[in-house]
Structure formats: structure tokens, C-alpha cells
Design goal:
Strand content: 5-15%
Shape: globular
Number of helices: 9
Helix content: 40-55%
CATH class: Alpha Beta
Bound molecules: flavin mononucleotide
Largest sheet: 4 strands, antiparallel
Distance between the termini: 30 Å
Number of domains: 1
Order of helices and strands: HHEHHEHHHEHEH
Mean pLDDT: 90
CATH topology: NADH Oxidase
Low-confidence stretches: 1-24
Structural class: alpha+beta
Length: 225
């Protein structure tokens, strides 16, 4: 178990983490996964099961969002022809065609707005539910579809961070991408035109460890007052 008061003794590479590449039976803590995760762009030819994907997406869905709107949506792609089309839309990035799974992640605020009853807390009484839905309709109904799509994508990015970290924790490697033609990806996957693409994520068991991470220090990014 990693302890916050032993920062200098932190594991710094996945090579030092027992079980980092040995699959879900060796789940990594959040801190271990944060240290072990790198973008990996070459994958072993090993399938990822639907159950494994369901676990990942279920845990990803635990991400918080403002008003609990959860505007993120996923398309899980395994079909090779479709992956090849996505690879072409992603400027030929090979990991898209080569990974066993590609997850296209997007934010759909119009779907969210059409089903607000799904996101209000079930413990609220009927009056409070109705007033919450009315408030949300006022809030977001007053925005342009483009502005609320951008707002929703900010929320979806929280879930993207969860997905990358949880995937590593569960024994998978990932390559998040924004280098693609969003319209072409939407067209290929039947994603609504009004949606905002959050990312494509190639996912599988890595055949290499990716590049060593290079990050700002806490001093560079943080001030304490
Ligand atoms: C939203 C997002 C989009 C990215 N797009 C691409 C991409 O299109 N192609 C690529 O090879 N890497 C892409 N990356 C990977 C970044 O270059 C990488 O995360 C960064 O250099 C840090 O390296 P690390 O992920 O190994 O820690 C993307 C990462 C994020 C979070």
C-alpha cells in the first residue's frame, strides 16, 4: 500500500509494480495506476472481453459531473473493418487499427436534456424532482446547443480521466487520442452530429510500456496560500 507520507519512496515505473501488467486479479491502487500509466501505442494480440469492458465503463461512470448529468456516452469497437475506417479518420494512427478495442467517447447533451428524469436523484420527492428538472431546463435551455455541447464535453473529460486510470488499475493499457476528424468518426459510428467527441481510446494489453512520463513538478503548477 502506498502512503502519502512516503512520497520520496514512491514507485516511479511500472517495472517496479508487482502485477502491473498481469491483469485484473492484480488491481492497482489509484496512486499506483497514476504512476504506472503511460500512453501505449502497440498492443498484444489478446482479446478484451465484454465483461471486462462493462467493468471498465461501469467504474468510469462513477465519475462525478455537475448536477450529476453524466453526459458521456461510449461506442466500443472491435470490428476490424470499422477500426480500419477509424484509423483512416485518425490520420493513420496505427494503434487504432491494431488495438483489440477502440472506445469512442463522446458527450451528448441533447440526449441528456431529453432524459433529465434519469439523472435526478431517486430519493427526492416528486415535487423536488419536478423543480430540479425545471431548473435544469431553464439553465441549459437558455444556452445555444453549441455552448451546452462544450459544457457537456468538459464533464465528459472528467470521465475520460477516470477511464484511463481505471483501465490501468484493471491491467489494461490505453492510448487516448484527439488527433482525428471528428465528423468522419461520428459518421462511421452513427454518433449524432450534435455530439462532441471527447476522445478515441485504443485499449488492450500493451506490448511495450510507452515513453517514460515527463511531468511538471508540484512547485511549477501549484501555489500554497
Ligand atoms: C485528450 C488527449 C488527446 C491525445 N491525442 C493523442 C493523439 O491523437 N495521438 C497520440 O499519439 N497521442 C495522443 N495523446 C497522448 C498524449 O500525447 C500523452 O498523454 C502525453 O504526451 C503524456 O504522455 P503519457 O500519456 O504517456 O503520460 C492524447 C492525450 C490526451 C489526454
Amino acid at each position: 500500500m502506498l502512503r502519502s507520507d512516503t512520497a520520496s519512496a514512491f514507485i516511479t515505473t511500472e517495472h517496479e509494480i508487482p502485477g502491473a501488467h498481469s491483469g485484473p486479479s492484480h488491481r492497482l491502487s489509484a496512486a499506483e495506476a497514476a504512476l504506472a500509466r503511460h500512453s501505449v501505442r502497440v498492443y498484444r494480440d489478446e482479446p478484451v472481453t465484454d465483461d471486462e469492458i462493462r467493468t471498465l465503463i461501469s467504474l468510469t461512470g462513477r465519475a462525478p459531473s455537475a448536477f450529476n448529468l453524466q453526459p458521456w456516452r461510449f461506442v466500443v469497437v472491435r470490428d476490424q473493418t470499422t477500426k480500419n475506417q477509424l484509423m483512416a479518420a485518425a490520420h493513420g494512427q496505427k494503434q487504432v487499427g491494431q488495438a483489440p478495442v477502440v472506445i469512442a467517447m463522446y458527450a451528448d447533451m441533447e440526449d441528456t436534456m431529453a432524459h433529465l428524469d434519469e439523472v435526478v436523484h431517486p430519493d427526492l420527492d416528486a415535487d423536488k424532482k419536478a423543480s430540479t428538472i425545471a431548473m435544469l431546463n431553464r439553465n441549459f435551455g437558455g444556452m445555444t446547443p453549441e455552448a451546452r455541447a462544450a459544457w457537456a464535453n468538459n464533464q465528459s473529460n472528467i470521465a475520460l480521466g477516470y477511464l484511463l486510470l481505471i483501465a490501468k488499475s484493471e491491467g489494461f493499457d490505453t492510448s487516448p487520442m484527439l488527433g482525428f476528424q471528428a465528423d468522419l468518426v461520428k459518421q462511421t459510428l452513427g454518433i449524432p452530429a450534435h455530439a462532441t467527441m471527447t476522445a478515441m481510446v485504443a485499449l488492450g494489453r500493451g506490448a511495450d510500456h510507452g515513453f517514460r512520463s515527463h511531468r511538471h513538478t508540484v512547485e511549477r503548477t501549484t501555489s500554497f496560500r
